[in-house]
Amino acid sequence: MEETELCFPQLNTSCVKPKRPLSDTVLIYMILSFISLLTAALNLLVIISISHFKQLHTPTNSLILSLAVSDFFVGFILLFQSMFIDSCWYIGDLMCVVYYGLDYIVCYSSVGTMVLISIDRYVAICDPLHYSIRVTQKRVQVCVCLCWICSLFGLVLLKDNLKQPGQYNSCVGECVIILSKSERVANLIWGFILPITVIVVLYMRVFVVAVSQARAMRSHIVTVTVQGSRKVTAKKSELKAARTLGVVVGVFIICFCPYYCVSLADQETLFNISSAAFLVCLFYFNSCLNPLIYAFFYPWFRKCIKVIVTLQILKSGSSDTNIL
Where is the G-protein coupled receptors family 1 profile domain (predicted)? Predict the structure, then answer.
C-alpha cells in the first residue's frame, strides 16, 4: 500500500495531503508567487511615489494611494494562499479566521476605492467647473476613511466563524469557513453587483460626455487646415474614452465574475484544486492590474519610477522634484 502523507504526522486526526502531479503543484506555486510579488512591487512603487513627491498630493492621487495600499496588502495576503496548495493550514484555527477577515477587508477596500475613483473622474469630466469646490483633499480623506470602515463588513460575514474558530474543520490542519446562503448573497451584492453597477453607470456617463465634447470640437472647426488636425484629435479622444471604459469595466468583470459566481454555488460543487486555484489567482490578479490601469497611464508615474530606481529619491529635497 502506498503510504499517505499527513499535515501533522504526529496526530492521527491530521488532514491528509492530496496527491497530485508535481508539475501541477509547482505551476500553482509559481503563479501565486509571481502574482503576489508583482502586485506588491507595483503597488509599493505607487505608494512611494504619491507619498514622497509633494506635487502628487492631490485629491485624485489620494484615492490612487488608498487603492495602492489595499492592493499591496492583497499581494501580501496572497502569500498565505500557498498553504492551501497542500490543503494544510499550519498556524492555527484563529489565524485562519483572521486571514479570511483581512482578505475580505482589503478586497472590499480595493473595490470601494475603485468606486470612489470613478466618482472622482465623473465629477472631473462631467462637471469640471465645480470640481475644485466639490472634490477637496479633506473630503477625499473622509471618503477614504469611510471606505475602509465600510470594508469591515467582511468581519460581519465571519461573525459565526469568529465565535468558534475551526468549528467547521473536519481534521487538524484544515482552514474552512462556511457562509450561509444569505451571507454569500450579501457578499455578492456588496463586493460585486453594487460596485460594478456604480462604475458602469458613471463611466458610461463619462464616455457619453467625452464623445459629445469631441463632436462639439469638430462642429466648431472653421478652417480646412485646422479641420484635419482636429478631426484626428477628436477621433483619438473617442478612442481613448472607449478604451478606458473597456479596460476598467472589462478587467473588473473578467477577474471578479467567475469567483463570485462560484461563491454562490454549494461548496460541495466546487471545482478540483487546480480550477479553484485558477479562480483565486484570477480574482487577486485584479489588484495587480489596478496600478497598471490607474497609475501607469499617467506620465508622472514613469518619471517617479526613474527617480526611485536611480536612487535620486534619497537626495535631500527630492520631494520637491518637478514630476508633472
Answer: 42-294
Cα–Cα distance measured from residue 264 to residue 138, given in angstroms and rounded to the nearest whole number? 39
C-alpha cell, 20: 497530485
User: Which residues span the domain enclosing 94?
Assistant: 22-182+268-320
Residue 247 CB-density burial (10 A; 0-12 exposed, 13-18 middle, 19+ buried): middle
CA distances from 232 to 235, 240, 244 (A): 5, 12, 18
Helix, strand or coil, per DSSP, at residue 315 = coil
| CATH number for position 174 | 1.20.1070.10
Instruction: Tabulate helix, strand, coil % of the chain (nearest 5).
Output: 75, 0, 20
- Residues 251 and 205: their CA atoms lie apart, in Å, by 19
Q: Is residue 195 part of a domain?
A: no
Q: d(Cα 46, Cα 296) in Å, to the nearest integer?
A: 9
Global pTM exceeds 0.85 = no
Each residue's pLDDT tens digit, 163-197 = 888 787 788 888 888 878 788 788 888 888 888 88
Give just the sign of the alpha carbon dihedral 157, 162, 168, 169.
positive
Q: How many domains does the chain have?
A: 1
Residue 112 lies in a domain: yes
